[in-house]
Amino acid sequence: MQALEARIPHSPEVLFKEQVHWDGLPLFLENKIKPVIEKMMALYLGDVAGDALCNTIVGHLKARHLATTLIHTLRPIFPTKAHHIVVAIWRQLVFETEAHNRGYDSGSYMVSEESRDPE
């Protein structure tokens, strides 16, 4: 899994051009992608309930929208952090869809926190 993760770009310009294999999304959205979303919401919203925002992001992914569209959606709420939040979500998304496309079971493996700078 680490070798696959190493292939996932950190640069947003490159990352957002990566192919997302959307067909596998229902298999791991709730247990792999949603926890990343919830973690980002908790990090930047603190104790404020981010359920509605989390659901908005999940809906965005289910609709297969572009990463840049999600950034524009989040920018009014997170003017300086929207880009970072979407990169964190998108790295896990690309990782999971690529693992699924290759027939790998990623289990509990999550993309490294190193790419998720909270500043």
Please outline what is shown here.
The chain is mainly α and 119 residues long. 59% of the residues lie in helices and 0% in strands. The chain starts with a helix and ends in an 18-residue tail after the last helix.
Write the layout of secondary structure elements.
Layout: H1 2-6, H2 12-15, H3 25-45, H4 51-62, H5 67-74, H6 82-101
Helix pairs in contact: 3-4, 3-6, 5-6
Provide an overview of this structure.
By secondary structure, the protein is mainly alpha-helical. The chain has a single domain, classed as PWI domain, CATH 1.20.1390. Helix content is about 60%, strand content about 0%.
CATH topology annotation: PWI domain
Number of strands: 0
Sheet with the most strands? none
Assign the structural class, choosing from mainly alpha, mainly beta, alpha/beta, alpha+beta, or little secondary structure. mainly alpha
| Count of separate structural domains | 1
> Treating each run of at least 4 consecutive H or I residues as one helix, how many helices?
6
Radius of gyration: 13 Å
CATH class: Mainly Alpha
Proportion of residues in extended strands: under 5%
CATH architecture: Up-down Bundle
Q: What would you call the shape?
A: globular
Distance N to C terminus: 27 Å
Report the mean per-residue pLDDT as an integer: 90
Percent helix, as a range, is 55-70%
Pattern of helices and strands: HHHHHH
